[in-house]
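Notebook entry, structure prediction.
Reason for the run: the old model in the group folder had no record of what sequence produced it. Starting over properly, with the input documented here first.
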Amino acid sequence: MCIGLCCAALACMAPPGPKGVLRFLASPAGPGVAALALMAVGMSIEELGRIRRIRIGVGLCIVAAALVAAGGLWGAALPALKPSLAWFAWLLYGAGALGVALAFRRDLAVVRDPRHGQSVRLESISADAVRLTANGAPVTIPTALIRSVSLGTGLEGRGVFVLVGSRDSTFDRPRRARPRRGATRCAQLELGFGPGRD
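New structure, fully documented this time:
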């Protein structure tokens, strides 16, 4: 939505004169159209959920943000728009650019660490224990207690389910890591849901 506001503003900055698709794209609106397309493709790739694809998708979104900035600079370098149109175009661009800047900051963090913003983060696996962070709380599960690990998908995203040998065993549990009580001595822990990523 924010990048759409920027594209609308850049379209307003197209210089007057003969119109046509090529002339339109050869104006500040061109980078805006390219940015919108890259953002759509990048988000689609990112949602596929593999680490490499996440980085590729986020990288396309970062390029899209750069194109929005380039389009704004191009528009500022052109002769001044009519006052009745200038305030509207720059108001739209400013509102959209604020959202694009926030998304750009988040995208940079995801490029550095694809786990950024995830409710469940794998920290380390060793012969002794599996260490996670779930909703900001540390979770340490002794390896000897783990019977199985599975990935579940629901309307809210994906969840990690860990079947441990005994619910009476002691380890750090986040608020959302709640044992599912049953007739057996085993406990299944739901370690939260996050967006559709691995």
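Summary: The CA atoms of residues 39 and 61 lie 5 Å apart.
The old model has been moved to the deprecated folder.
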